[in-house]
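hey so u asked for the seq, here:
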Amino acid sequence: MNNTYKSAGVDKEEGYKTVDKIKSAVAETHNKNVLNNLGSFGAFYEIGGYKNPVLVSGTDGVGTKLKIALDTKNYGSIGIDCFAMCANDILCHGAKPLFFLDYLACGKLESEVAAEIVLGMVKACKDNQCALIGGETAEMPGMYQPGDYDVAGFCVGIVEKDQVIDGSKIKKGDRIIALPSSGFHSNGFSLVRKIFPDFHEEFEGKPLFETLLVPTKLYYNDVFKLLENMEVAGIAHITGGGLIENVPRIIPDGMCATIDRSNIKVPTIMQEIEKRGKIDNLEMYGTFNMGVGMTVVVDESLAEKVLSLIDDAYEIGVITEGNEKINLL
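ran it, structure tokens below
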């Protein structure tokens, strides 16, 4: 028998099936800026209407949360996670997401699984008025086992240069507002899986994996509602490293984010993992988002307006003078 690519473990036909399953849905994310009539090796996006535009980009994956999705055969939220981890990052600088590209790697491609993951990305892109303009599916037998997948993405956004948010305007007395998370989002899952080895155990009346796989919250609508109504001094996306590592990234020298832990609404699943795993509370705040998906820093006079614009937002701290960048009370 002659050797073929298929005999080596790569089934091109399954790739074509995947494209067929997602093609029309992906096209629905496109707008007039997507130039489909140009080229075939790259995706084209036209920019217009800006005076001094700055492109802001972010790339990320889903981490070992993917393991829970694969083991329980629940793939619908993973694409949302992938997009959210990238798009939420660029939102921190006031950038509007323009377009997204995905990368999907596997040991043996199953079109149904791949399509479900990408359709999650499509849903997230639509929610953020962002175009999914390209991607890559890599079938790599020998590198990955059959049934294994890895997912990553890349998002590009845009903001006027004089409207870039970088934390430099944060000052003493500013208020720190929490935008709640939807759960663990896509961080800390190596520890989650260690403490909760049985994804099918019951938690609050349903299988645990349903709670663990709740997709990362998309903050586009909330953030732009604020930006359209006020000046925001700083925004931090609370990802790996939790509040302890992410908030200091936007705090100017000589300033400190003083946060009262008693104000934070910690989800019951995170209370459970802290208790069951006998995890130190500071370790929790340096690993998980603890129910805070984003923090927004605004002038004291604007704090009440933030709370009126975003129903579930609440105040967790204040900017003080100091060199430690963050102080958890």
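The first strand starts at residue 53 and ends at 61. The chain has two domains: 6-163, 175-328.
lmk if thats what u needed
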